[in-house]
Amino acid sequence: MPLTGVEPARMNRKKGDKGFESPRPYKLTHQVVCINNINFQRKSVVGFVELTIFPTVANLNRIKLNSKQCRIYRVRINDLEAAFIYNDPTLEVCHSESKQRNLNYFSNAYAAAVSAVDPDAGNGELCIKVPSELWKHVDELKVLKIHINFSLDQPKGGLHFVVPSVEGSMAERGAHVFSCGYQNSTRFWFPCVDSYSELCTWKLEFTVDAAMVAVSNGDLVETVYTHDMR
């Protein structure tokens, strides 16, 4: 799983510096990515992620993550329903009522929109409200597990579908879907902290047709059949 995010130059530090200090009020330690349905006809996927985080401040009441193109259906924190707001300012860089019509204005507006969701500024497109039932839990800096159900339909980037227009099954036609690790592209196909500075362990789960195979870096833990034996 290639982790994508900010340029390494942002993490450069001078001699004598104490080191990189995360702008996020939590530490991500583990992430599960489960893609349990891949539809080549619709060029869509359905799945969920589970992020394990440790609060680093006692008053953590909102958690910001990165996510683009995904439709978020449900968010739970420690099995409690959590309210969330999704806002991607890069979808409308210049408001329609703006009278400015020049490249310099657009460049400045785009830079501001990107900064507003920059994970290394503590920002993100997805803002999750921590349920009040967990505030005491957070004050004690105890672990939180964030479960997010999502889907992705005809992505424009991040995840790429290749479906040759020939006869036969999808496997016979050589249909496949892939991702590649260019900057800030992970958020394009599942919710995450899209930054090189937030290292963690990963578990990847893919459900594919029996005639196909999932390829990834890391160690293969197990292969199991689904209930329909496919």
From TrEMBL:
Record localization: Nucleus
Keyword vocabulary terms for this entry: Nucleus, Transcription, Transcription regulation
InterPro entries: Aminopeptidase_N-like_N_sf, TAF2
The keyword S-adenosyl-L-methionine is annotated on this UniProt entry: no
SUPFAM superfamilies per record: Leukotriene A4 hydrolase N-terminal domain
GO biological process, alphabetically ordered: RNA polymerase II preinitiation complex assembly
A GO MF label: transcription cis-regulatory region binding
Region of interest (Disordered), residue spans: 1-23
A GO CC term attached to the entry: transcription factor TFIID complex
Protein family according to the UniProt entry: Belongs to the TAF2 family.
Name recorded for this polypeptide: Transcription initiation factor TFIID subunit 2
Species this protein is from: Homo sapiens (Human)
